[in-house]
From TrEMBL:
<comment type="similarity">
    <text>Belongs to the leucine-binding protein family.</text>
</comment>
<dbReference type="Pfam" id="PF13458">
    <property type="entry name" value="Peripla_BP_6"/>
</dbReference>
<dbReference type="InterPro" id="IPR051010">
    <property type="entry name" value="BCAA_transport"/>
</dbReference>
<feature type="domain" description="Leucine-binding protein">
    <location>
        <begin position="49"/>
        <end position="388"/>
    </location>
</feature>
<dbReference type="InterPro" id="IPR028082">
    <property type="entry name" value="Peripla_BP_I"/>
</dbReference>
<dbReference type="InterPro" id="IPR028081">
    <property type="entry name" value="Leu-bd"/>
</dbReference>
<keyword id="KW-0732">Signal</keyword>
<protein>
    <submittedName>
        <fullName>ABC transporter substrate-binding protein</fullName>
    </submittedName>
</protein>
Length: 406
């Protein structure tokens, strides 16, 4: 326990994150860490990372955004290269389209793992593709950074020693949602969750969080796979006169906005609450902006536009990323650029390890405590889901834009 006579013991987890952020964020701002002998052209072998993303098919609403994010970050890193030991290395990411198919993602993982020059993998914005990548990564002992949501991707940790997850843990998101529901005076809510691992994590976490917040759960429903009949699931949830005070939708884009549209068509006019995976460009596009008005979401801090006027190191890094994104793609939706952080975490681990050896990278990834573009991460041997809970905020849609509530 911290005491007044021991200043070092008074360091909070957040202050440790701030102190540990320098290498990741100085690189994001184009600066050299203290003691670095200065910029030089890359003169070593490439730092090669394999990526399996949903560029088409189910999950593309998130996958395409992550692919854009990692391209921006690779260009930033390659301006000077990444110092690994006595050499500077260019970063190259071999990106492949898994089309939202877990079997395809599994094949990608096997192909990447079989190549000696691939030092790590990232990807899987869907829980199922991420789980397939994680299984092979663990078997073949190659570090894998998951961009998918579903706590089972990294649990149990003792059996996922090579697997790390950048998205928030379900229980952290659920707790913030349940507290918001309670603070709004709602007595009972309904829960509509996606199929698969992500939805199962959400259902389990929301039930526990609502109980702790003393909010009733009137009923639960399951959303079918993207492209199937969402209306039927909504009708079952709102079938009788005893409608819930609020509805929590635990699903990624485009399922989240599809569910919202169907809920409004069914006559439900109460508040809507979403988990972080609902935030994409599609969520507040012209087709959905009216439906989503007033909806709430729990999401990492990068959704907060006010950070663009701050001058902290983390805010400067986010501002630089957002400006580059807008310059290349015309608009920034506020999605969490986990892929950007994943690339930097691998590069940072290689620098600390002075090597691209897979085993050494894994060991140094497990020690990462740092602030990224999407939020703060704190990996440890006991915790491979690194997004810190105080990186999350509550937002609402106001006139088509996400506005911070708390």
């Amino acid at each position: 326990m911290a005491t007044a006579t021991n200043p070092s013991a008074a360091l909070t987890r957040r202050s440790v994150l701030t102190l540990g952020a320098s290498s990741l964020l100085l690189g994001a701002c184009g600066q050299e860490p203290p003691g670095d002998p200065g910029s030089a052209a890359p003169d070593g072998p490439e730092l090669l990372i394999g990526a399996s993303l949903e560029l088409t098919g189910r999950g593309a609403a998130l996958g395409v955004l992550q692919e854009r994010a990692l391209r921006i970050t690779v260009d930033q890193l390659d301006a000077d290269g990444v110092r690994v030991g006595d050499h500077r290395r260019r970063v190259r990411v071999d990106v492949r389209d898994n089309t939202g198919d877990a079997q395809v993602a599994g094949r990608h993982a096997a192909e990447f793992a079989a190549r000696e020059d691939v030092c790590a993998m990232l990807g899987g914005t869907l829980a199922e593709t991420s789980a397939a990548l994680a299984e092979t990564a663990q078997q073949q002992r190659i570090p894998f950074l998951s961009l998918g949501s579903g706590d089972g991707i990294v649990q149990p940790t003792a059996e996922r020693t090579y697997v790390y997850k950048l998205t928030p843990d379900a229980h952290d998101v659920a707790r913030r949602l349940a507290e918001l529901v309670r603070d709004q005076g709602l007595r009972q809510v309904a829960l509509l969750a996606s199929d698969g691992l992500h939805g199962r994590s959400g259902r389990q976490a929301m039930r526990a969080a609502l109980r702790a917040a003393d909010v009733g759960l009137s009923r639960t429903g399951a959303l079918p796979a993207t492209g199937l009949d969402v209306a039927a699931a909504v009708r079952r949830l709102t079938a009788d006169a005893d409608r819930p005070d609020g509805v929590v939708v635990w699903a990624g884009s485009p399922d989240a906005s599809s569910a919202a549209r169907e809920l409004r068509r069914s006559g439900y006019d109460g508040p809507l609450f979403f988990d972080a995976t609902a935030v994409t460009e599609e969520t507040v596009d012209s087709r959905n902006v009216t439906t989503m008005e007033g909806a709430y979401v729990v999401h990492p801090a990068c959704l907060d536009e006010s950070t663009l006027t701050n001058t902290t190191t983390a805010a400067l890094a986010r501002r630089d990323f957002v400006f580059r994104y807008i310059e290349q793609h015309g608009a920034f939706s506020g999605f969490a650029p986990y892929a950007s952080d994943a690339v930097r975490l691998v590069a940072d681990a290689a620098g600390l390890a002075r090597s691209a050896d897979r085993g050494r990278l894994r060991a140094f990834l497990e020690q990462q405590v740092t602030e990224g573009i999407a939020g703060a991460y704190a990996f440890s041997p006991e915790r491979h889901g690194g997004m810190e809970r105080d990186s999350l905020g509550v937002y609402t849609v106001s006139r088509g834009d996400w506005t911070r509530v708390s």
